[in-house]
Structure formats: C-alpha cells, structure tokens
Amino acid sequence: MMKERTLPPPALHTLFVSRETSNCPLLSEMILLGKRLHDYGLADNETGVLSLDYGKRLLINAKNVNLTTMTAQDLVEIVDYDPLKNIMMVIGAKDPSRHTPEHWIVQKARHDINALLQINSPALSERFQNMLPTTQTDTPSGNLEAAKEILQALRAGKTIVIKNKGLLFAGFNIKELHDALQQHLGVQK
To answer: Rounded mean pLDDT of the chain?
Structure first.
C-alpha cells in the first residue's frame, strides 16, 4: 500500500500589472470607513483588512497598513487571482495584504457580499466567540482552507468570529459594514 503525500500549497506569487495608484472612485469610501474605526472603540493595535469588490476586481489595503490612517496609496487593486496556482495580478505601489486570497475567494463565491472588514484582535475573538458564528479551526491566513472556513461560518450570519484571530464583518456595501460595526461594537464618542 502506497502512502499518500501532501504537498504544501505553492507560495503566493504576485505579478504587478502597474505600480500606479488605483483611480477607482470607491477608494474614498474605504478610506472614510478606516478613519471611523476609532469611533467604534477599536484600539490602534487592532489591525485590520478592508476589501471591496469592484466588478471583476477587488480593492484591498496593502500589507502592514493602519486602516485608520490609510491613503489611496495604501490600497491596491487585485486584477485577478488563481487560487490553485496561487498567482495574483495587482495594480498598486505596495504588496497586498496576506489576507487577500481569502477575501477574493469569499467575495467571488458569495454574490451578496461585496465588502469585508476583518479586525485582527484576539480579544474581540474571545469576547464574541459564544455570541457569533465562529470558524471551526484556527487555520493559517491567506489560503484556500482559510477561505473555506470563513465561507462555512458565513452561512450562519454576516458577522463572524475568526477563531483566535478576530472578527469579520461582511456586507453588500460599505454602509452595511458601518451598520454591522454599530450593531456589534456601538459608537464610542
């Protein structure tokens, strides 16, 4: 009997179509939501990822960007992504967030989800784990398995806990993300 071997997924390969800043009109909405995150009581050390479906493309913040201070130069446009080959085509000056693969897969799989806000905060994960749908396993980010876990949890609601990592708010648009933040975190003025 032969033993089955599993190979690790290929490393993400990023191809830059252009190093110019995207000129998508939705960038301003994303920047405004980022600036408002302090209003919802989020601390500076609670990092995040914000993405917005834009036709056949995806707008997402770059790697190591603070959402509350991001500018248009901190956002990249994903032209295409092949999850099997792990190849991504990008427009922008910076490398995309490591969470880009799962955001791409979720938004392409669910037509009712065009906007995602992921708050990376183990404290929020722990606070909401018994109140919101939660991913089953603590899967490493940035791959097909993480996307599958998220999609499974999103069946039970559009705001979920990513086990041991934080919260994910999903919506049809930026306004739905604002509404979900208000509902679950409340506005701190």
So the answer is: 90
Collapsing DSSP to helix, strand or coil, 128 comes out as helix
- Report the candidate in 72, 77, 70, 128 with the shortest Cα–Cα distance to residue 100: 77
Query: Considering the domain boundaries, does residue 180 fall inside one?
Result: yes
With respect to residue 70, please indicate whether it lies within any of the assigned structural domains. no
By DSSP bridging, strand 47-54 and strand 115-120 are: antiparallel
Tokens of 86: 């792990």
**What pTM value is reported for the model?**
0.90
CATH code, domain with 125:
3.40.225.10
For residue 143, the model assigns a pLDDT of: 80
- Is residue 17 one of the residues assigned to a domain? no
Q: What is the pLDDT of residues 25-71, one digit of tens each?
A: 899 999 999 999 988 888 777 789 999 998 899 999 999 999 999 99
Max Cα–Cα distance, the chain, nearest Å: 65
Number of domains the chain is built from: 1
